[in-house]
Structure formats: structure tokens, C-alpha cells
Write a structure and sequence with these properties.
This protein is α/β, with parallel strands linked by helices. The two termini are 61 Å apart.
Length: 928
């Protein structure tokens, strides 16, 4: 019985047997036993609530129809639950409900994280046929506190007495038998009845407690003789007073689970309840016997409540679990390292449902898009709001070559090292790449080598449709801008839709002001977008058809990731914040200089509708099976460019206090990291624990004066300490930039196969002299997480260091001053020149109350200056601000430094030349 006690989770106190005895033969006083159990449960719940104030065990009782006997049982269960501190909610459905509707309602209860136990009150009273077995099996086995789901029944039949729910009546019976002090081991037991609720599970419980069990029923031959051999008799066949005195062995223990109504003229109701045992006779020979009513029934209810408390404790344990139980995936690293696509194809990924469960996401919080990707609900944040955040690590870098230095690879390698090798909760939070560079220059942010987000083709293409939704919403807004101008030009005031109770009370001036936005076409800043590199859309004319009655204007397309909608999505902190930001987007100005917003145009609700799924982060995985949240993807040169705030917030709650979320600040520290700190961190309220600054030998050589990087350039494949030394000034400046935010900075030197040991050691030596927290040579591209273990250990140590985090500027400072601070402190400029157009815009935005927004510099990432051809770490130059824009919905001002293209062009030989699908094997070819 000790094994059973461990299973049920009740630490029952020694019971006073004198409470069980009647003055004549022995009989249980069920109220004493069940009350004691309920009292112990009440104390347990009270202690848990003191420790976890938001802990509230909850039971859902599902009823169809209104049978009075069912109502009596339900009231009894609700009362017993309340005594213990369990909240029981009665879900009563009409007799007319269909089977499908009932299934849907039960599934909703399964998905509700605030409900811990679900029971279906049987029988169902319904007008149309409903399969009761189907309904009880629709209840999640993790919430099946009745213990009758096929999965729970199967575990019991196999003798697995841990980790599931016992059916309540058999469990209550076993507790009563245990209270007699009777030795089960080696005893003979007879169970009369074979129902799935009582008979069969009772027999299995007795069997697994080492009794020799015979299962009988109403058709068993010579049933009295069989029963007479038993030391323990359990009756649950539904035959009134069937078991007689001469059936029972003297001294046997008799458990009566039957409840039957028989006529009784002495009763006011004309009937009374009896069991399957003739109680008055059998009590003369039995050593212990349960009465009916008042015997097994109260024990069944007590065990139902015990199961509910246990289910709630399981949910609490899952919620408070500090370490994930991840199944990490092995890597078979080979040398030389194959192409990224070859590595990904040779690798078997986990089903995304498995990963979601491993990291503690509930079924109701995940929407699956096939087997390899899913969306994570924002409800996760509400459920985990009490949980402390994990450690927040941001990856930045020195000024990169045009092909990048491996920041994304480092993000993933570090997560693989922290998770698969140091066994810590680690999650990567990365942006989704644009299809423009995917098909144009093979660009991507999914890592490389043995540190990748997989499947790569899903990551780079449609994923879950976020960018398509942004494109559709952006272009709907653009269409409404032009349509509004058209209608205002061609309709009088009344036809434009006045919605006042008495328009006649308005003056002509008030009426015109009310119905007309009076958009100035030359002020429109909202462009149409397309997620394709297409330079021929950089300047277009719209409105040339005759139906537009001569209204036409010059405009342009941007690439989708340039859309302010992506910045809004990435910086929002909730659904409501997202909705508010959408309404604040400014698309143009009126002729009188008033800003025109999406709310003015009446399109905010439609935008929210189109983007309602896109606001939820996407779940994917690394090659080693660690989780990745993919969300956001705004254009870093012009916008802030980081992954979404929501992805980071959810990730930090999922990993828990001792876990790690690793994210990326795109491009060099003067661009991506500065925007991460001064824009994203201000919005989210998050503070990074550590900055990892990525450097490479090839980037140092380029900054030292080597020609633009190509894979065939000999200077990048041969040792050249002089170039490395000359280019070190750039790394030194970017390290200084990173350190200026008061957070520990680790330099990670990303090793390439062409690097020499002397080049790497030179970088390490010179960097250590500049006060970096640590300098680590990393080999994760070739070795996966193993190659980043040293980095992971350094990051872990650095998170224990004190921090003096600070922003670069105060939001209250004038816009010109904030721009000056960024230019001088981050870039090395000595002065800032504001061209007339830029100064005019600053004056306008200041008058409109936008001065206190952060600044998001629109600048090349290939140089600390505004000129991509200038390398190293120049100083004393003048930075020229040519124009200034405002992303009011996103919440920042963006000054233009030099000229940047907002939609890329296709190269002579685009990457899509090599892309194909093998029709026989449905295999992607030529994709990275």
C-alpha cells in the first residue's frame, strides 16, 4: 500500500480505528474517513495558497440536461470542493446540445490553463444521441480527475501507479481497505462487476497491491460459492441486495459500491436507497462493511477533490519548473564544413509540438503551422507574469563586411552551447529575413554552418505569413490615402458621411472641417510595399487611368521590411499597445499642416484585423533542438531592426530566472546596438545583462584597407598581421561604443577556416588591453554548440557582474542635441550639419509635440560615417543630415545620413538562379 500512498500524493495521518467501529459488528463511519481526508486537503491547499497567492485549484463539472439525481451529486461535489478551498464551476448545457458542440466546449475547458480538473456528470440527458465514452475521452487525460479516460485506464491496467489519475471510487475503496489494517498481500479478493468506472479498475488496484483477484458478474456460475472464498468482497454490479449473508466468508471485508432505489412504503418518498449487499444480514459476518448510503459515496467525492488538488499541483509544478526537459539533437560535424543547405537536409528536426511542450507552453498557447513551426499566443505573458525574467544577452558587432561577420550564427551557437552543452534554459530571439535578399544576394539571418534555424526554407520564405499580412495592411492604408483624396475632390460635404445627431447645427466651416481631411498630396509619406528586390519601383506614378479624373501623383515602392507597420509590430508590448500604435501612424499632412493619421482615415481597425496573427511570435528550433522565437524584421538601416519586444518578453518568462534569452542587434554597435538600447530597451523596459561584440579577421582586414570582401580575394585567405593591426581601430571604437552603455562586454572572435592562429591571438591580445570583460575565440560555425561553450561560460560569469546600465541621451533633450550626441559619441564625428530640409522637418515635428521621441538614425552599416567607402575609425568629420522622417506609431524620429535605397535591386546573377524543387522527392535545391 505504500506505493499507492506515494501515487495519490496524500500524506495521510494515522487513523483512529475506534472511529470506524459500530457497537455491534464492525462498520465504517465514512464521514470520519472522508472528513479527515478533506481536512488534510484543506490544510494542504491553504499552505500552497500562502506560498502562491494566485494558486486556485479549479474543477469544472460538465452536465447535459437537468436530471435531479445528477443535480444532487453536483451540489455535493461543489460543497465538498468549497470546504477544501477548491473552486468548482458548474457548466450546464441544454438537452438540445449536439455531440460536436459538447466536444468543442469540453476542449475549451481543456485549453483553459485556469481549470485544473474536468469531469462529465453521467448519464447525459440529451435529445439526440451522444457517445458518452467519446465525451469522457475528450477530457484531457491531464485534467481527467474522474480517472476514466482511456489513457489513464491503460496506465492502471499496466500497473503504472504514478503520474496519472486513479478512478475516484476504486481509490476511495482502497483507502478504506487500507484503514482496516487488513493485509492485502496474498489475500483473496472478489470483485462483482466489470464496469470501467468501478469493477475493472478496482480489480486492477487490488491486483497491483498483490491480492489474488477474481472478477465476477451477474452471470458468473455458482457466484455465491466464488464469493465465499474471498477475504475481500467489492460489489458494484447494480443489483439491489444481491450479496447475502451466506455468500460472505466470516471476517471478510465487504465494500458495497452499489446504489439502487427500491420501494419502501415507510418512507415519505415511497422508496429508499440500498446497495448491492444485503447490509443487515452481511454485517453479522463481515469484519468491516460499508453502508449505503453514506459509505463509498463520500469517499468517492473526497478522492475527486484529492485528484483535483493533485492536478492543480501538477499545473503549479509545471509553471514553477525551473529547468526544461529538452531532447537535444546530436550533430555529426564533418570537415570541411558542407554548405548550409546540405547540413540542414542531413539533419532530423523535432516536431514543433514536442518542443513547445518541452519549454512549458500550453496547448492553448500554441497554433501549429505544420510540424516545424508554430505561433505563440500573447496569453503566455499573462500566465507567466509572476515569473522572474531570465538573463538578457544581446549580440552586436564591429563594422561588418557586406556579407556579415556571423552575429546571427553567434546568437544560435551561443544558445546551442548554453542549452545542449551547459544544460541551461536558452532561447534565441531573432528577426525574420526579407525575401528581397533571399532571392537576390543569398542574404539571410538564420545563421550558418552547424548553427542554423531550421527548416531554412520556411524561415526565409513565407514562415507563417507575417510579412504577407504586413504587405496587405500597408497597401490597404496606401490605397485609402489616395482614395480619400479622390473622394474629397469629387464629392460635396454631405456625401462624405457625417455621423452627427443633428448636422444642421453645424456651421459651414465646422461641417467642412469635420468631413474633410484635406490631405496635401505632396506631403504623403506612406508608400506601397513589396517584399521583393525591384529597383524599377523606386519611382512610379499612380492615378493615370481616366477613372481617376486626372488625379495622379509621383510616389514609390519600398521593400516590406521598410514599412512602419513592422516597426510598430516589433515595438508593441501588448494587443492594446499594438492597436494604439497603429492608430497613431502619420501618413501625410493636411494643407494647413495638421498630421493625418490612420485613425483619421478610419482604417485602424482593418489594419489590426489583418495583423491580428502577425503580432504573435513564431516558434522554430536550432539544429541542436533549442527553441528560437522568430518575430519582426524591420529595415535596420532606417528603422531599429531588432527582433520584437514581445518575442523577448515571452522568451524571458519561458526561460525563467536562471535561463537566457539571446537576441541580436543588427550591424555594428554604432547602429544596431545603439538603437537596441535607446529605442527597444526604452520601450520594453528591459535591460541587457551582457553585450557580446562579434569580430572577425576578415572584417579587421577590410577595415585596415583591404578591398571589398569576396571569397576569392587572396588577402582574406592569407595571413596578414599588418592589415589586422590597422583595422583594429574599428573594433576598438565599437568596443568603446558598447562599453558606453555600462554593461559587461565580451568580444567573440568568429573563427573562419582561413584565419591563422597568429591573427586570432593578435586580436585577443589587443582586445584584452582595452578592458573587455573577456575575449573568446569561437568555432561554432564548424562545431555547433561545442564551439561556443567557452563563450557560453564567459557569458554566464558575466551575468553575475554588477551593471551600470545607462542610455546614451535623455529623451527631453532637443532633437538636434540627441542627433549630435549619437554622431559624436557613436560615430566619432566632431560636428553635425543639418540641411535646410532636415531642419525644417525638425521644427515641424517639434511643434507637433514629437521632440521627446528617441532618434533612429538612417545610416549605412558599412562605415562609422555616412559614406560606406570610408573604413577604419575616422574622427573629426562632419556628419550631414539630409532629411528627417517620423515614425509616430513606432515611436521614433529617423534622420537621414546620406542616401539609402528603400527597395534593393537584383544583382546580375540573382540567387534564385540556383533554386529548384526536386519533383520526385519534393526536396528544395540550391537554397543556401
Amino acid at each position: 500500500m505504500q506505493a499507492l500512498r506515494i501515487f495519490v500524493g496524500l500524506q495521510l495521518k494515522p487513523f483512529n480505528k475506534t472511529k470506524l467501529l459500530t457497537p455491534t459488528r464492525f462498520s465504517w463511519r465514512n464521514q470520519s474517513v472522508s472528513s479527515e481526508i478533506r481536512n488534510q486537503l484543506a490544510n494542504e491547499v491553504k499552505e500552497l495558497k500562502q506560498k502562491y497567492p494566485d494558486f486556485k485549484p479549479t474543477l469544472a463539472i460538465v452536465q447535459v440536461g437537468g436530471r435531479e439525481d445528477s443535480n444532487v451529486y453536483i451540489r455535493m461535489k461543489i460543497k465538498a470542493a468549497a470546504e477544501v478551498g477548491v473552486e468548482a464551476t458548474h457548466y450546464k448545457f441544454p438537452r438540445s446540445i449536439s455531440q460536436g458542440e459538447l466536444v468543442d466546449n469540453v476542449r475549451k475547458l481543456n485549453e483553459n490553463p485556469n481549470i485544473h480538473g474536468v469531469i462529465v456528470q453521467l448519464p447525459l440527458e440529451c435529445d439526440q444521441p451522444i457517445d458518452s465514452n467519446l465525451i469522457t475521452n475528450t477530457v484531457s487525460p491531464h485534467k481527467d480527475v474522474d480517472g476514466i479516460h482511456d489513457e489513464n485506464a491503460g496506465k492502471l491496467s499496466h500497473g503504472q501507479l504514478e503520474g496519472f489519475f486513479l478512478p475516484c471510487t476504486p481509490w476511495g475503496c482502497m483507502e478504506l481497505i487500507k484503514r482496516t489494517g487488513f493485509t492485502l498481500k496474498g489475500s483473496r479478493a472478489v470483485v462483482i462487476g466489470r464496469s470501467k468506472i468501478v469493477g475493472m479498475p478496482m480489480a486492477q488496484l487490488l491486483l497491483w497491491n498483490h491480492a489474488t483477484v477474481t472478477i465476477c458478474h451477474s452471470r458468473t456460475k455458482d457466484l455465491p460459492a466464488v464469493v465465499r472464498e474471498a477475504d475481500i468482497v467489492v460489489a458494484g454490479v447494480g443489483q439491489p441486495q444481491m450479496v447475502k449473508k451466506d455468500w460472505v466468508k466470516p471476517g471478510a471485508v465487504v465494500i458495497d459500491c452499489g446504489i439502487n432505489s427500491i420501494p419502501d412504503s415507510t418512507k415519505k418518498s415511497g422508496s429508499r436507497l440500498v446497495g448491492d449487499v444485503s447490509y443487515d444480514e452481511v454485517k453479522e459476518v463481515a469484519s468491516y462493511i460499508t453502508p449505503v448510503p453514506g459509505g463509498v459515496g463520500p469517499m468517492t467525492v473526497a478522492m475527486l477533490i484529492a485528484n483535483t488538488v493533485r492536478a492543480a499541483k501538477w499545473a503549479l509544478e509545471r509553471r514553477e519548473r525551473k529547468t526544461w526537459d529538452l531532447r537535444y539533437l546530436p550533430l555529426n560535424c564533418v570537415t570541411p564544413v558542407p554548405r548550409d543547405s546540405a547540413i540542414a537536409k542531413s539533419h532530423t528536426t523535432k516536431n514543433i509540438q514536442e518542443l513547445a511542450e518541452e519549454i512549458g507552453l500550453l496547448a492553448s498557447e500554441v497554433e501549429f503551422y505544420g510540424k516545424k513551426k508554430a505561433k505563440v499566443s500573447l496569453d503566455t505573458l499573462e500566465r507567466l507574469k509572476h515569473r522572474p525574467n531570465g538573463k538578457y544577452i544581446v549580440i552586436s558587432g564591429m563594422t561588418p563586411t557586406p556579407l556579415g561577420e556571423g552575429k546571427s550564427t553567434t546568437v544560435l551557437g551561443l544558445c546551442q552551447a548554453l542549452g545542449a552543452h551547459l544544460k541551461k534554459n536558452a532561447l534565441a530571439s531573432v528577426r525574420q529575413p526579407s525575401q528581397g535578399p533571399t532571392f537576390g544576394t543569398r542574404g539571410g539571418i538564420d545563421g550558418g554552418g552547424y548553427c542554423q534555424v531550421v527548416p531554412s526554407e520556411d524561415f526565409h520564405l513565407h514562415l507563417t505569413g507575417d510579412f504577407h499580412a504586413v504587405t496587405a495592411a500597408n497597401n490597404l492604408l496606401a490605397a485609402q490615402v489616395d482614395a480619400r483624396i479622390f473622394h474629397e475632390q469629387n464629392m460635396d460635404d454631405e456625401k462624405l458621411g457625417i455621423e452627427k445627431t443633428d448636422p444642421s447645427l453645424l456651421t459651414a466651416e465646422e461641417k467642412t472641417k469635420f468631413v474633410r481631411l484635406d490631405i496635401n498630396p505632396s506631403s504623403i509619406s506612406w508608400n506601397r510595399v513589396l517584399d521583393t528586390s525591384d529597383q524599377y519601383l523606386r519611382k512610379i506614378t499612380v492615378g493615370q487611368h481616366l477613372s481617376e479624373t486626372s488625379f495622379s501623383r509621383e510616389t514609390q515602392f519600398d521593400i516590406t521590411v521598410k514599412s512602419e507597420l513592422l516597426s510598430v509590430l516589433a515595438l508593441s508590448t501588448s494587443h492594446q499597445d499594438f492597436r494604439n500604435r497603429l492608430g497613431q501612424i502619420v501618413v501625410a499632412q493636411s494643407h494647413s499642416g495638421e498630421p493625418i493619421t490612420t485613425e483619421d482615415l478610419g482604417v485602424t481597425g482593418a489594419l489590426f484585423l489583418l495583423l491580428k496573427d502577425a503580432i504573435c511570435p513564431n516558434l522554430m528550433q536550432t539544429l541542436e533542438g533549442t527553441p528560437v522565437l522568430v518575430h519582426g524584421g524591420s529595415y535596420t538601416n532606417i528603422a531599429h531592426g531588432n527582433s520584437s519586444v514581445l518575442a523577448d518578453l515571452i522568451g524571458l518568462k519561458l526561460v525563467g530566472e536562471e535561463g537566457f534569452v539571446v537576441t541580436e542587434a543588427e550591424f555594428g554597435a554604432e547602429v544596431g546596438l545603439e538603437k537596441f538600447i535607446d529605442i527597444k530597451c526604452r520601450t520594453s523596459g528591459l535591460v541587457p545583462n551582457v553585450v557580446v561584440l562579434v569580430a572577425s579577421v576578415r572584417a579587421l582586414k577590410m577595415q585596415g584597407g583591404a578591398a571589398s570582401f569576396t571569397h576569392s580575394s587572396e588577402v582574406y585567405s592569407q595571413e596578414n598581421l599588418e592589415l589586422v593591426e590597422k583595422g583594429f581601430c574599428n573594433l576598438a571604437k565599437q568596443l568603446e561604443n558598447a562599453q558606453s552603455f555600462g554593461v559587461p562586454v565580451i568580444v567573440a572572435v568568429n573563427r573562419f577556416s582561413t584565419d591563422t592562429e597568429m591573427e586570432l591571438q593578435l586580436i585577443k591580445q589587443r582586445t584584452q588591453e582595452l578592458g573587455a570583460y573577456d575575449v573568446i575565440i569561437c568555432d561554432h560555425w564548424a562545431k555547433g554548440g561545442t564551439g561556443a561553450v567557452d563563450l557560453a561560460e564567459a557569458v554566464t560569469r558575466a551575468t553575475r557582474e554588477s551593471s551600470n546600465f545607462c542610455f546614451l541621451y535623455d529623451l527631453k533633450q532637443p532633437l538636434e542635441e540627441k542627433i549630435f550626441i549619437i554622431a559624436t559619441k557613436m560615430y566619432g564625428a566632431s560636428n553635425v550639419e543639418f540641411l535646410p530640409k532636415a531642419r525644417e522637418k525638425i521644427d515641424t515635428y517639434t511643434k507637433q509635440g514629437l521632440n521627446d521621441l528617441p532618434v533612429c538614425m538612417a545610416k549605412t552599416h558599412l562605415s562609422l560615417t555616412g559614406d560606406p567607402t570610408i573604413k577604419g575609425a575616422p574622427s573629426g568629420f562632419t556628419l550631414s543630415i539630409t532629411d528627417v522622417g517620423a515614425s509616430v506609431g513606432a515611436g521614433f524620429i529617423y534622420p537621414w545620413v546620406g542616401k539609402l535605397q528603400t527597395i534593393p535591386s537584383l544583382p546580375v546573377r540573382p540567387a534564385f538562379y540556383d533554386m529548384e524543387i526536386d519533383e520526385d522527392h519534393k526536396d528544395v535545391k540550391g537554397f543556401f
